[in-house]
Amino acid sequence: MTAAGSADLHPVLPLPRVGNYPRCAAATSLAEACEGLADDLREQYDLPSIYLLVDGRLRCQAARGYFQVVDGFTPETGVIGRVVMTGTPVVIHDVRQDPSFIAAIPGLLAEAAVPVRVHGTTVGAVNVESGTFLPQDIAERLTVAAEVLGSTIERLGGMPPVPLAQRLARIAVGLTSLTDGDEIRVRAVEGALQVSGMSSAALSEEDPDGGWVVVAASGPLAATLAEWTDDDQRVMAAWVGAGTSSHFPGGVDVPAGYEFLLRARVRAISVQPLVVAGRVTGILTTADTHPVPHDPTVGAALELLAAQTAASLSNAEAMAELSRRAKEDPLTGLKNAASFAQDLEHAGTGTVCVLVDVDHFKQVNDTFGHVAGDRLLCALADELSGNLREGAMLYRVGGDELAVLLPADESVAQGVAQRLVHAARRVRTTVSIGVAHVGAGSPQIARLRADRALYEAKSRGRDQYVVAD
């Protein structure tokens, strides 16, 4: 056998004509066209398949000769993805040399794929794989097949729209994977545009003071929707206060009290509530400058999207709260020892490490009880926080031990330490303080030096600070 790539391994056969794909050309539906082309190609090749881009994923519409089908991959993946992304054919005579190759079955040697175009837009690919070899002119041959499929799809009216349920499912799955609240809000607005068919969308929420504010918006009306006042949004929130949705299809006069719709040039609007624990916490609004008839199927999809958005935001807030608590001391509200260790590890050479220990704290607990000790720690934390310069961070790193990280030089650090000593006296206690600069070595060395300086302050009589040598 001659080497791979020689003529006898890649024979040149007569180029097939359009008539070689009669099943595809005569099809009366998209599914029939793809299945027909797979059958037509099967007469010439062992492993043909047809992929179309559906809702952002490459979906196998038909395949022959496979016991396993690879499906649902993104256009950035694999040989077929490369063809769809670039709109150019790809022929690989030895797939072992191509890292982008995705093996559906073992023992494959060659793969060829060409783009399928509908009205000039690449919508998928015709693909052939082989365990031995493919003709040298395989790209030209498959291009003919792809043109037949593209022409048939055009004759049938073009690519069908993605079913609403599938679009909604894709958006909902995307929302469930997110943990950042802001990203969830942006995705929800984008999803509302895809589901509703309206030109613009916005998401509003109650702020901590009880007022309503737009937190995300998209579309040509985005800026106008973001300018709706608290009163305007309270009107819309009232429409869905019972947990129901509300749709204004347009085409009739806007009643009194709804003039803000006219100011925004809105002629159709749909409002869905975000409900958490039985309370409306936000509203998802889609709007258009033209009348849009009410469609109960679309309305139901928007309701589900709003419900998923509310659930995703609630989960994100819960996870953020858990993360915050994991880094926070529950008694004082200061950042805890784990946060201090992490922040110290990333501290730069211009940082000062300050360790603060409450003098005779055990006597407070033994004499007055742990409740009194807790009150003292909370009062001290508040007092010390008020005497730190901007950029400084205060931590509780032990029972009666606090720590400070701040960007400062030595003179400034001494001034800060002196203020902390005086601040402690104002809550009727004293503290011993050790100060050390973070040098070029390990930041942990600065902590050890600050700790030694702290014990030096205690040995000198407490109620003072010592700067490490």
Protein architecture, described:
Helices cover 41% and strands 22% of the residues. It has 469 residues and is of the alpha+beta class. The chain folds into 3 domains: 18-155, Beta-Lactamase, CATH 3.30.450.40; 164-324, Beta-Lactamase, CATH 3.30.450.40; 337-467, 2-Layer Sandwich (Alpha-Beta Plaits). The strands form 3 sheets. A 5-stranded antiparallel beta sheet has the order 2-1-5-4-3, with helices on both faces. It has a 5-stranded antiparallel beta sheet with strand order 7-6-10-9-8. A 5-stranded mixed beta sheet has the order 12-13-11-14-15, with helices on both faces. Helix 6 (181-196) packs antiparallel against helix 10 and helix 12 crosses helix 13 (370-385). The longest helix has 31 residues, at 296-326.
